[in-house]
């Protein structure tokens, strides 16, 4: 009996050890693949929001306890723009990450959505080409923009039935602008970007369930 029990335990231990090793190996392989894919996506996003460049210098800033990454792009030694990987935690579905491109003259060139979990068919439209949010700020001087939707007294358009998502998008762009100002030497440190204009998620979720705007 003792021998049989010992054998069973030994076999179970061996199987568990082999299975754990297998899972660990798969995780290592998968983690590398995911990291490579994320790096490739970031590189592509930088290219999508900036004019042609041959080199980038990466720096990081902390704004509102969030890490904001700036890619300063140069071509033949001349700065051609700044791609800023920014974020907000105030989306309807949580975190939204954007890559915002600024020209050397401060114009907003383009915005790529890197991550979002917004309502399909509503907030997800922020990732559509030529969407209302991008159209409201693209090719405009960043320092002349007040990053507020019309509903909050600003001049920027919002996505239909997705006000919370729209506010969050502009909040992330505003945070990118703060990082850009430091990167280009306009100011020494970034200002905080208030998330006060973003309606509380709980209230927004209740409104969405009721068929109203996010």
Q: Uncertain regions: pLDDT < 50 for 5+ in a row?
A: 196-211
Main sheet strand line-up? 1-2-3-4-5
**What is the 3D form?**
elongated
CA radius of gyration: 23 Å
| Number of helical stretches of at least 4 residues | 4
- Beta-strand content bin: 15-25%
Order of helices and strands: HEEEEEHHH
- Compute the separation of the termini in Å: 66 Å
The biggest beta sheet, please? Answer: 5 strands, antiparallel
The total count of strands amounts to 5
By helix and strand content, what is the structural category?
alpha+beta
Question: Number of folding domains?
Answer: 1
Tell me roughly what share of residues is in helical segments.
Answer: 25-40%
- Average pLDDT score: 86
Oligomer: single chain
Can you put this structure into words, describing what you see?
This protein has 214 residues and is α+β, with helices and mostly antiparallel strands. It has one domain. It has four helices and five strands; from the N terminus they run H-E-E-E-E-E-H-H-H. The chain has helices at 2-49, 132-137, 163-183, 201-209; strands at residues 55-63, 66-75, 78-91, 94-103, 108-115. Strands 1-2-3-4-5 form a five-stranded antiparallel beta sheet, with helices on both faces. Strand 3 and strand 4 form a beta hairpin. The chain starts with a helix and ends in a 5-residue tail after the last helix.
């Amino acid at each position: 009996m003792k021998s049989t029990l010992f054998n069973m335990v030994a076999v179970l231990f061996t199987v568990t050890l082999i299975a754990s090793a297998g899972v660990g190996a798969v995780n290592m392989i998968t983690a590398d693949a995911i990291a490579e894919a994320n790096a490739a996506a970031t590189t592509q996003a930088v290219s999508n929001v900036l004019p042609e460049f041959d080199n980038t210098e990466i720096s990081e800033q902390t704004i509102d306890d969030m890490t904001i990454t700036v890619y300063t792009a140069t071509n033949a030694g001349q700065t051609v723009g700044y791609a800023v990987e920014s974020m907000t935690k105030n989306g309807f579905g949580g975190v939204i990450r954007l890559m915002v491109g600024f020209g050397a003259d401060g114009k907003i060139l383009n915005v790529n959505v890197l991550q979002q979990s917004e309502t399909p068919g509503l907030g997800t439209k922020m990732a559509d080409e030529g969407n209302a949010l991008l159209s409201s700020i693209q090719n405009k001087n960043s320092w002349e923009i007040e990053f507020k939707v019309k509903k909050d007294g600003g001049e920027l358009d919002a996505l239909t039935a997705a006000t919370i998502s729209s506010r969050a998008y502009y909040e992330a762009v505003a945070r990118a602008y703060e990082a850009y100002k430091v990167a280009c030497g306009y100011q020494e440190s970034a200002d905080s970007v208030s998330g006060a204009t973003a309606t509380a998620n709980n209230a927004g979720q209740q409104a969405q369930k009721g068929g109203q705007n996010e």
